[in-house]
Each structure stands twice: as structure tokens, then as C-alpha cells.
Amino acid sequence: MINKSSNSKVLFTSELSSKSVLDLYRAYGRILKGNVAIKVHSGEKGNFNFLRPEFYSDIVNFLNGTIVETNTAYGGNRNNTEDHEKLLAMHHWNRYLVDILDSISPDITLEIPHGKRITKNYIGSNTTKYDSLLVISHFKGHPMAGFGGALKQLSIGMASSYGKKYIHGAGDPSRFWNTESEIFLEAMADAASSIVTYFKDRILFINVMKNISVDCDCVAYPKKPCMKDIGMLISNDPLAIDQACIDLVLASTDPGKKDLLERIDSKSGLHILDAAEDLHIGSREYDFIDLDKI
Predict the structure, then answer these.
(1) Mean pLDDT over the full length of the chain
(2) What is d(CA 25, CA 22) in angstroms, rounded to the nearest whole number?
């Protein structure tokens, strides 16, 4: 609509509201059809930074979508379906249709023929119920990956509980917590590529740069946000949208960015962008369209 270049298109708005999520989706122009899964991070018990259910109300209602989540692979209140469902209700996600994708065994296996570290990915069997996928990622830091955006949400976020262990261990679940950072990040990129291949052109990504902490929403008692809210982005390219978020942090004059960048650097977090580029998941080159200026 605005850009005729061959680069990936990333739209941005500084508005952060339920209405602006829907406005951003409409402005992008890609229509998600059929039974739409909307992947979010529902927040660990005790976390106060996760984006609340009401933030998604306009887009969920417009798409008649289902909020989808997956069980975790570590202790807490989301590592089995029964406890996870209770926490989803406690966090008021039950105002929508909610589906824990790996609540029913067995998992389905996605092949990754050209993976750098893993050649298969395990995802919940309920994934097959959905025709399209909207991946909404709360952009922030992460204690193992450095940062969490679209690529992490595609990989760890969409993997089953067993699949998470498999990715963390780069194919060896017994090494769940002991894999070198760069190897783990390459395994994440592999897993992300399998989801992109599975949904093809029936997938879209929104990254929300709000409540930006060095910690993930999976942390029960995270550090408070270190930066002021920046805004929200949308793209059909998970690599481009994550690169754009990193670029916005780098360009920010907020002194709090130092803490976030230190967290990312300490975990070699940007390596996932290199790995995703090698796998041709997307492009680090993009056209940035600021809707605030149009």
C-alpha cells in the first residue's frame, strides 16, 4: 500500500491499546482466514509484566480467534494442563476461548530437513485444528535467550512441553539446562522455521514493546520494566520484526536500554537473528513504515 520495495514490510505505531492492535492488523492488509489461533504469553503466576487479556479483546473478537498456549517444561503453574488451566482462569484468559495445544497426546512431529541443530520439532496435536496463526509476542528480555520476540514465540512458545526440552537440549532433552547459548539459539531458529513452513502464508506477527523488562513473562517475580513503552509492530516476517525491535531499542535515548542490551549481550541473544537468516526464515532488511507519521 505504501511501499513497492521487495524488502519485508514492518508497520509501527506508538499507540498501545486493544483498539490499536486491531487498527495495526487492518493497516497491514493480510487477512487471516478460517479458524484462527492467537498465540500469546499468558504469564507465569506472580508475573506482573505480562500483557493482560483485555489488551487483546478487539483483535480476538474481530477474528473470532482462539487464544492458544502450551505447557512449559519446568516447575511452576503452567507445566501441566490441569494447573495451567487454573492459572489461565486466574489471569482471566477464560473470557475467551482458550486452547492448550499440547493438552492431548501424542504430539505431532514437524520435520526440519535443513536444521542447524535439530531435524524435528514437537508441537501440540491441537495445532492441527487451526487454519491460520497470529503470533503476538511481548518483546522483552529473557534469562536464557537474551530477548524474546517473534522467533522465540514461534519456537519455544509453540513447542509442546517435550518439544521445549528437545529445543533447549538441541535434540537431547537430558541436556535441557546445559546447552551452550549459541547452540540453543540455533535450535530455536530451527524450530521457528518449522512453524513458518507449516502455516506458510497463513501467519502474521505482532510484537508489543510494552512493559519492557530484562525478564520474560515466564519469570514468576521479574524485574520491573527498565525502559519506557515504545510501541507495537506488525509484519509477515518474524526475522524482520524482531530485527526492527532491536533497532528501536538501539535507537532509543532511554537510559534503561543499557540493562536490556546487557541482558541480550550476556546470552549472545542476537545470534538467533543470524541463525534465522541462514535458514531463510525471513530477512533482516525491511521497510519500516511509521503509521504515526502518515
Answers:
(1) 96
(2) 5
